[in-house]
Amino acid sequence: MLARQRQELILDEVRSTGGVRVSDLVERLGVSDMTVRRDIEALAGRGLVTRVHGGATNASSSVDEPGFAAKATLRIEAKRAVANAAATLIEPGASVALSAGTTTHLVAGALLAVPRLTVVTNSLPVASVLHEAGRADLSVILTGGERTPSDALAGPVAVSTISGLHVDWLLMGVHGMDATAGFTTPNLAEAETNRALMRSARRTAVVADSSKWGMVGLITIAALEDVDVVVTDDGLEPEAREAVESHCSRLVIA
Predict the structure, then answer these.
(1) Is residue 98 packed enough to be buried (19+ CB in 10 Å), middle (13-18) or exposed (0-12)?
(2) Which CATH number characterizes residue 143's domain?
(3) Are residues 75 and 53 in the same domain?
(4) For FRET with 66, which of 101, 115, 152, 231 sits at 20 to 30 Å CA-CA?
């Protein structure tokens, strides 16, 4: 297979799934690790993909913020595995904050198996999942605020509501994870609101599939060492695992 044909296949995969891993491409294309990395470098040089640790993602800038519907179609199985693993952190009777995001949306569904919960959220889709369950032992507090492209409620109203609350856990979605930049988002208002959620929680767990590693949004929400747990899938590369484990109290691989 010619280099151009390989690169077209890689680009098609990135566009359809949002990201690819070098290891998967080596197996699929039957070429060496170095060949795949050169192909990704060539595509990145043309501005068609973004190189990340262990693979490539859609070309984007630090301020790009895809809408909820667009993100909801990407890496569904990985996100569902992360969501199910995150739900096991929560004990019956707990109070939980859920930030906005497509992974936390799936976490909301997984939490329906946990009895007697009080949930605080700034996510309209999360609130809908929990409300539609119609459970008498489930209390849902929606923060209010200004709506963002990811269907989050953010800004001063949300921060004011959150500031007086105290919860056992925050399960927080993020746009990107990076050893230097930490946990990031392209949205300034969401960053401020997520920090308020972190201050309200005794413990914080970031829930993010492995494709988020190496992505860096415009603003840092928190450093790696500021969270207690990171829940991700088994696609996280060894170097990334080492970086997370050296800074966070616990890494959970779904």
Answers:
(1) buried
(2) 3.40.50.1360
(3) no
(4) 231
Single pTM value for the model: 0.75
E strands in the chain: 19-21, 49-52, 55-58, 95-98, 117-121, 138-142, 146-147, 153-154, 167-172, 176-178, 182-185, 201-207, 219-222, 229-232, 250-253
**223: buried, middle or exposed (CB in 10 Å: 19+, 13-18, 0-12)?**
middle
Is the distance from CB of 209 to CB of 235 less than 8 angstroms?
yes
Is 63 inside any structural domain?
no
Print the domain residue range for 97.
68-253
Domain assignment present for residue 134? The answer is: yes
Q: Which residue has the tokens 């990031």?
A: 184
